[in-house]
Design brief:
The complex is a heterotrimer of chains A (about 375), B (about 160) and C (about 350). Chain A has about 375 residues and is mainly alpha-helical. Chain A has 16 helices and 8 strands. Chain A has a single domain, classed as Orthogonal Bundle (Cytochrome-c3 Hydrogenase, chain B), CATH 1.10.645. In chain A, helix 4 packs antiparallel against helix 5, helix 5 packs antiparallel against helix 12 and helix 6 runs antiparallel to helix 7. Chain C has about 350 residues and is mainly alpha-helical. Chain C has a two-stranded antiparallel sheet with strand order 1-2. Chain C is globular, with a radius of gyration of 21 Å. The chains are: A mainly alpha (about 375), B alpha+beta (about 160), C mainly alpha (about 350).
Amino acid sequence: MFRETEILKTGSQILPIKQNLEGAGDFVINVGPQHPATHGVLHLVITLNGETIKKVEPHLGYIHRSIEKMCERLNFRQFIYVTSRMDYLSAHINNHACAMCVEKGMQLEVPDRAQVIRVIMDELTRIASHELWWGAMAMDIGAFTPFFHAFREREKINEIMEETCGARLTMNYYVPGGLMADLHPNFQKKVKEFITLFKLKIDEYDELVTGNIIFINRMKGVGILSKEDAVSYGCSGPAARGSSVSNDIRKLYPYAVYDKVQFDEILETGCDSLARYMVRIREMKQSIHIIEQLIDNIPEGEFQAKTKAVLKLPKGEFYSRVETARGELGVYIVSEGATTPYRIKFRSPGFSNLSALDKMARGSKLGDLVAMMGTLDLVIPDIDR
Amino acid sequence: MFIVNYIKEVFGAIKSLLIGMRRTGYYFTHHKEIITEQYPDNRNTLVMADRFKGEVVLTHDEQNEHACTGCTACELACPNATIKIVTKFDITPEGKKKKAIDKFVYHLELCTMCNLCIVACPTDAIKMAQTFEHSVYDRNELIKILNKPDSKIRAGIE
Amino acid sequence: MWSLSNISSAIHNWLNQTFNPTWAMIIEMFIAGIAVIGLFALLGLVLVLMERRVAAWMQIRLGPNRVGPFGLLQSAADTVKLLVKEGMTPNGADKFLFNLAPFIAMMVAMLLMAPIAFAKDFQLWNLNIGVLYVTAVSSIMVVSILMAGWASNNKYSLMGAMRSGAQIVSYELSAGLSILTIVVFTGSLNIADIINAQSNGWWIFKGHIPVLISFVIFIVAVTAETNRAPFDLAEAESELTAGFHTEYSGMKFALFFLAEYINVFIVCAIGATLFLGGWMPFHIGHWKAFNQVMDYIPTSIWFFGKTFFLIFVIMWFRWTFPRLRIDQLLNLEWKYLLPISMFNLLLATAIAILGWHF
C-alpha cells in the first residue's frame, strides 16, 4: 500500500524521465504468443519505425515442458519416446540421436539392417519435415494453395510411417540397439511408389512457388545472415548452409550408414532467405537420392541387437549428434552408472537459429520478418523443450 | 537497351505468374486429384494399418482366458504410469497359492502409445488395438479395466 | 421475350397511372433500395460460396459440402451464425467511429451500385458522368478502412489501415488512367453510351493493344483497390493477424466482409462494362446467324456472365500468388503500372484521334 501511494505521488516526476529513456516512444507490437505467423507459441516483441524493424526480441518459455528434467527420471529405454515431442516434425531423427548416445555408452553394436532402415526413416522424416516447411513458408508469405499441395505428399510419408511404426508423427520406433519392430512387408513397395510420385510433384513446387516473381522478390536480399554471423550465432542446418557454412553432420561426423551413401552437402552462397529456401528444396532431392540408394539394399538379418532387460550406462559422459531437418541436434548424457541419466541436455537447432533472427531482421520490413521466420523453419517445442 | 530490359522484365514476371496460374487452374478443373477423405462417412471402408497404435488391449480367447501372469513388466516399462496391475492369489486345484491378476487397470488418458509395454510383455498377453475413436464426455471412462470379468489365465503360461 | 427492362417499365407505368408522379418516384426509389439490399445479400452469399469452392478445388479439397445440397446453404448458415454473435466494442476504442466504419464501407458499396447497367435499359441511375462517379465514390472506401483502423485502438489495425490508405490512394491512379483509355475511345463518361459504343464489338477487341494493356492494368489495380490477395496487405493475416478489422466481430465484421465481396463484384462489373461490353452480346463481324443466336441469350445473363468471369480471375489470383511486401506494392504501382498506363493513355489517344481502332 505504501509503495503504491509513493508511486502515485511521484508519478508525475517519473514520467518525463521515462520518456528520455532509450526506446521510449517506439512503436512496439507483440507478435505472438498467439499469432498466425509464429507457428506455435513464440512471442516476439518487435520495435518498429513505421514498417521498418528496429529490434526483435524473442520471448520463450510458453511451451516449456522441461523435457530434459523428465528424461532424468525415465530409464534409458523410456526417455527416447519423450524426445519425439521436442522437434515433432523430425521425431525419428531425435530418437536416433538419443538411441545412438545410449548405444555409444553401452558400446552396443547395432545390426546393419537396423542402421540402413534408420537412415531411410530419417530421410523420409526429413522430406516430410521439409514438405511441411514448404507449405507453411508459402502460407507465411500469403499463398495458401501450396500448403495443401505439400500435405498431399507428406500424407504419403505419414502412411508409410503408420504402416511400419504404427504412428504418424511421434513414432517411437528406435530403441537402444536397433528398432522396435521389423519393416512392414509393404514398406519397400510403398517407398518406391512415393519416390516416383515425389519426383513428379517436386517440379510443381517450382511452378507454383519457386519460379514465381512475387515470391523471388519477397525472398531475395532479405534476411541477410553473413557467414561470420551464422557461425557466431551457432546456426546450424539449412539456416547456416544458406550462408555457405559447411556443417552437415551427416558429412562431417557420419553416423549410421551415411558414410556409405553418396549425397551432396547443399551449400548456397546467397546468405538471404532465398538461399535458405533453395537449400531445403535441394535437400529434399538429395534425401530422395539417399533413399534410392538404400531401398533395394537393405541387408537381411536382425533388426535389433541383443540387450539386457534393464539398461545401465557406465559412469561417464556421452555425447552424440545428428543432423535433423532443422540442424544439429546434440544429446549429452551424464551417467552415474544408474538406470536413469543423471543429467541430460539437448542442444536443439531451433534455439540457436532463432537467436540470429534479431540480426537478420533489423532494418527490414515487417512483412519480411514473417518470411525470415519461415526460412528459419522454427519449431517452437524444439526451442523451448 | 534500358527499355528492352524493362520490357523483358515485365514479360518475364507475367510469364512466371501465368505458370503458377496454370498449375492452380489444372487442379481447379481436374477434380479427380481431390484427396479429401470424408471421415465419418467412410467409416465402413476405412482400414487402419495393422500396426496402428490405438490403445492397449488384453487379448482374450473364446474360453475367456488371457495370457497375463501379472508380472508387472509392462507396468515397469511404462514411462507414464499408464498401467497399474492389481494382483490377487488364486488357489490352484492342487491347493497351492498362485499369483494372478485381479485388475489390469489401463489409463488411456495418460497413454502415449509408445509401444514399450507391448515389447516388454514376456507372454504377449497385451497388444495394440487399431481403434482410435476414444473421445468420451467423462474422463473416468478412459480408465479401463482390461481383463474381462471372470477371465482367467490360460493354462500352461508361466 | 423475357427481359428486365420490360418488367421495370411495366412497374413504372403502373405506378404512374395509380399515383401522382412524386409518389410514384418515391415508391420507385423505395423498391430500388430494397432490390439493391436484396442483391447485396444474395451476392454476398453467392460470392462467399464461390470463393470457398474455387479455393477448395484449387487446393485439391472438396470445399463446403455439408449444409444443404452440395453445401449451397453453407454461407447462409454462416450468416445466421454471424448475426447471432456478439458484436464486441473494445474498451479503448472510439465507440462512435468504431461502429460507424462498417456502415460507411457498406454505404460506399451501395452507392457504387447506382450507375451500373445490369441489363439492356436496366440501370438505377443513368447519370452522364457515370465513370467519373464510380472512380470518385470508390475512393471513399479508404475512409471507412482508416476509420476502422484508427478507432479500434489496436496497433495491428492501425498498421493495416495505414497500409491500406497508401495502397488504395496509389492504385486509384492507374485504375483511373486505364478507365480513361476507354473514355478516350468512346468520348463519353456515360456508362450507357460506353456500352452502346461497343454494339459492333467489345472494346477489348476493337481497341487492340492499348485497351488490352489497360485491361490488364485495370484488373491488377482493382485487385489492389479491393484489398484482395496478392495485395491484401491491409489484412495480411500472417503479419497483422487480420489488419484493420482485427477488433471487429459478429455482424460488424460481416459488413466489412460483405463490403469486400460487393466491391469485388462492382469493380468486376465496371471492368465488364468498360472492356467486355457490359450487357452487349458477343458478335462476330458479319456472321448473321451466329449473332442472332447470341442475341437470344438475355442481356442480364451476358452481364453477369462477364462479371463472374472477372470475379473468377480475381479469385484465381488470390489462391495462386503470394503476397507482396508494402514497398514492392508501391514500387509496382509507381515504377511499373503508372508509367505504363500513362504511356498507354498517350498511345490510346493517338489511336483514337487517328481512328486506327476498328
